[in-house]
Amino acid sequence: MPGYGAYGALKGAVEVLTRYEAQEFGKRGINVNVVALGAIETDFGGGVVRDNAQVNQHIAGTTALGRVGLPADIGGVVAFLCTDDAKWINAQRIEVSGGSNL
């Protein structure tokens, strides 16, 4: 997407940092993962996904589940990663996007 070069580079940097931190903090029993979001109806970017019907429809059309994400779609995944059930998940990029751009 035009104008998103710095944003994309920073997302990539966070993913690399996650792997390094997982290695460094694992010795202390700390897991490190990154949750990679798809388009979510929030204030991000001035609320364009939430407030612009054309943008919302375009993104929904490129998402396997046929809609844009909602904040509630993310919280459960993050909460799960904080439980003992996720104790063996480490150094992972977890895509939570509804199947965007498949």
| Residue share in helix | 40-55%
* Overall mean pLDDT: 95
Which regions contain 5 or more consecutive residues with pLDDT less than 50? none
Describe the strand arrangement of the main beta sheet, using strand numbers: 1-2
The N- to C-terminal Cα distance equals 16 Å
Measured by DSSP, the beta-strand proportion falls in: 5-15%
Largest sheet: 2 strands, parallel
Overall 3D shape? globular
SSE pattern, N- to C-terminal: HEHHHE
Number of domains: 1
CATH architecture: 3-Layer(aba) Sandwich
Q: Tell me the radius of gyration.
A: 15 Å
Strands, count: 2
CATH topology: Rossmann fold
Number of helices: 4
| CATH homology group | NAD(P)-binding Rossmann-like Domain
What does this structure look like?
The chain has a two-stranded parallel sheet with strand order 1-2. It contains 4 helices and 2 strands. The mean pLDDT is 95. The chain has one domain: Rossmann fold, CATH 3.40.50. It is globular. It is mostly helical.
Q: Could you give a quick summary of the protein structure above?
A:
Helix content is 44%, strand content 8%. The protein has helices at 5-26, 48-51, 53-61, 72-81, and strands at residues 34-37, 93-96. It comes from Epilithonimonas bovis DSM 19482.
Element layout with pairings:
Elements: H1 5-26, E1 34-37, H2 48-51, H3 53-61, H4 72-81, E2 93-96
Parallel strand pairs: 1-2
Pfam families: adh_short_C2
Family: Belongs to the short-chain dehydrogenases/reductases (SDR) family.
Organism: Epilithonimonas bovis DSM 19482
